[in-house]
């Protein structure tokens, strides 16, 4: 998944709005961070053109369909309304005369593997598998569950369009149809050494009904053993689905890891192609449930430190928001690896990582750490 997108490496570009020469960032976003924040009227069309191009290459809808008459999917914030043969933004669903086909309910576009514990999971520093927290109800050991496995389920579709996507190759895999997997097939991958299942991607949201059904079947199969259900998500689901997701993780000892991409709505839109308002509202709801089980934590937040764009100011605002919900919510700051349209960016610098860590602590969070330290330069 480390394929290069641009042939040439470039660490500078001229901002399409203010014409300033920007150093220490590649041209993938086209607009400097200051203009995204303060001159959105001028920046918006530049950003939209980049996102449109990045989707047309993969024959993905350039924006969520909003047919005046059509079938609606209400799984995520986009609420796509599709005419017959029109695909949803995530491309998992397609309109028919009366309903939706392709699937994400009875079968799913996914791949999976067995990840030995301790994993490099975003929450392994606080979760039951990595630390033994919640033993014996939620962990099989008093410490790391060495000898057990996480069943890592990678959903090959997404309802965001992050220009730095670390796993963007999935955009090429859905069309041939070879990756559709049925529930029974995936169930055979759950063994007695499986102590957690983690849904990630892409994102689990567009195929949430499948993940919920599969989780219930897996818990039935391993009834009496520790088997945690965990999610790694952009958090942009329709809030009506939150309780079903939370119930599975709360009772199994798993967690919901929400990746908060940015605080400023325009920086978020530029990075992901989507709004962040519902994401933040969903985090408030999940944090409410998290008070019901503090050990191991139900909610874990993370943010990727995109050089130049997700700086200490962004992190401070995000951290202050999280701390207002509960200062003990764990927050992982992830060092950046250049990928996809931001392939020309440098990795996160030590100075940026340290400034962001300090900003998150200053904002009132008590459990913050920098992950992927091997990428820091
Ligand atoms: S999937 Fe859940 S329990 Fe397993 S390592 Fe990751 S956070 Fe921990
Ligand atoms: S899950 Fe997919 S089809 Fe449904 S609303 Fe979201 S992007 Fe659209």
TrEMBL record:
Q: Which GO terms describe its molecular function?
A: 4 iron, 4 sulfur cluster binding; lyase activity; metal ion binding
Report the co-factor binding details: Binds 1 [4Fe-4S] cluster. The cluster is coordinated with 3 cysteines and an exchangeable S-adenosyl-L-methionine.
Q: Where is the Radical SAM core domain?
A: 154-321
Report the SUPFAM superfamilies cross-referenced here: Radical SAM enzymes
**Which cofactor(s) are needed, names only?**
[4Fe-4S] cluster
> Matching CDD domains, A to Z?
Radical_SAM (cd01335)
Keywords from the UniProt entry: 4Fe-4S, Iron, Iron-sulfur, Lyase, Metal-binding, Pyruvate, S-adenosyl-L-methionine
Q: Which residues bind [4Fe-4S] cluster?
A: 158, 162, 165
Question: Which PANTHER family does the UniProt entry name for this protein?
Answer: PYRUVATE FORMATE-LYASE ACTIVATING ENZYME HOMOLOG, PYRUVATE FORMATE-LYASE-ACTIVATING ENZYME
Query: What is this protein called in UniProt?
Result: Pyruvate formate lyase activating enzyme
The species is Desulfacinum hydrothermale DSM 13146
């Amino acid at each position: 998944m480390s394929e290069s997108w641009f042939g040439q490496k470039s660490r500078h570009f001229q901002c399409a709005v203010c014409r300033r020469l920007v150093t220490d960032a590649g041209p993938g976003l086209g607009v400097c961070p200051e203009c995204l924040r303060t001159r959105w009227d001028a920046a918006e069309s530049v950003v939209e053109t980049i996102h449109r191009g990045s989707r047309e290459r993969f024959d993905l809808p350039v924006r969520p369909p909003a047919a005046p008459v059509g079938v609606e999917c209400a799984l995520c914030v986009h609420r796509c309304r599709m005419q017959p043969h029109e695909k949803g933004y995530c491309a998992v669903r397609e309109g028919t005369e009366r309903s939706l086909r392709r699937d994400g309910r009875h079968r799913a576009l996914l791949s999976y593997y067995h990840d030995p514990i301790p994993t490099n999971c975003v929450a392994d520093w606080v979760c039951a598998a990595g630390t033994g927290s919640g033993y014996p109800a939620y962990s099989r050991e008093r410490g790391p569950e060495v000898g057990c496995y996480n069943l890592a389920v990678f959903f090959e579709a997404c309802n965001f369009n992050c220009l730095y996507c670390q796993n963007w190759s999935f955009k090429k895999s859905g069309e041939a149809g070879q990756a559709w997997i049925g529930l029974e097939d995936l169930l055979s991958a759950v063994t007695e050494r499986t102590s957690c299942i983690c849904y990630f991607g892409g994102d689990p949201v567009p195929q949430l009904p499948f993940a919920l059904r599969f989780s219930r079947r897996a818990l039935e199969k391993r009834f009496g053993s520790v088997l945690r259900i965990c999610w790694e998500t952009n958090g942009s689901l329709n809030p009506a689905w939150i309780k079903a997701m939370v119930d599975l993780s709360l009772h199994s000892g798993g967690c919901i890891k929400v990746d908060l991409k940015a605080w400023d709505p325009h920086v978020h839109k530029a990075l992901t192609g989507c709004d962040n308002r519902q994401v933040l509202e969903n985090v408030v709801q999940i944090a409410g449930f998290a008070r019901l089980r503090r050990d191991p934590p139900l909610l874990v937040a993370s943010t990727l430190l995109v050089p130049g764009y997700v700086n200490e100011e962004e992190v401070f605002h995000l951290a202050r928001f999280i701390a207002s919900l509960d200062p003990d919510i764990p927050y992982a700051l992830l060092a950046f690896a250049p990928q996809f349209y931001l392939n020309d960016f440098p990795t996160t610098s030590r100075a940026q990582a340290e400034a962001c860590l300090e900003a998150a602590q200053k904002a009132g969070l008590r459990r913050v750490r920098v992950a992927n330290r091997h990428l820091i330069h």
